[in-house]
Amino acid sequence: IFLQQESKKQPFMIGISGSVAVGKSTTSRLLQILLSRTFSGSTVELVTTDGFLYPNATLIEQNILNRKGFPESYDMELLLDFLNQLKNGQTDQKQTIQAADFIIVEGINVFQNPQNDRLYMTDFFDFSIYVDAEVANIESWYIDRFKKLLDRAKDDQNNYYHRFTQQPEAEVLAFAHQVWESINLLNLKDYIEPTRNRAELILHKAANHEIDEIYLKR
Questions:
Q1: Whole-number mean pLDDT of the chain?
Q2: How many beta carbons lie within 10 A of that of residue 205, not counting itself?
């Protein structure tokens, strides 16, 4: 207790970034399991920044729906406020995150700097990880994921991807490649990959998803 204010336990916060489809979510879940087993009795929470994307209606109103996933499509003020609360040991019922020993924050934008702000996203993290891979491999994984989404949607008319299952496969795959090149690859090159060197640990994955190189800052 300091100045009659009760101090709150601060969690150890880990940021995980990388391209769309590179395997951030899988890496985060595996790390969550590893930490839970290594530090028995500790609580490990996992947060994704996807929850801080502006609603589609807002993106349409601002004419940036085609920029979904780019920096301007996130409510960075809300995200920073959320991270600040977590870092100071405060719970957030709205985001259903309770006080934890470890918090893993995963997203393509976790190392990006907020616009017109002196704060750095990395200031909130005690450790940071970037999941890396060759662009050709990431594109291949993106297309594979797209195919899996189509397979799951074929019998569900309410699924967003169901409409694509009614179109010729070659046409749908051409569309997927176009989305990769015009949106995800552009986002990777311009906004995600430039933040790679802000990470303390870089995990490089080979074509089979196995980690073949690890870079750790001294």
A1: 90
A2: 21
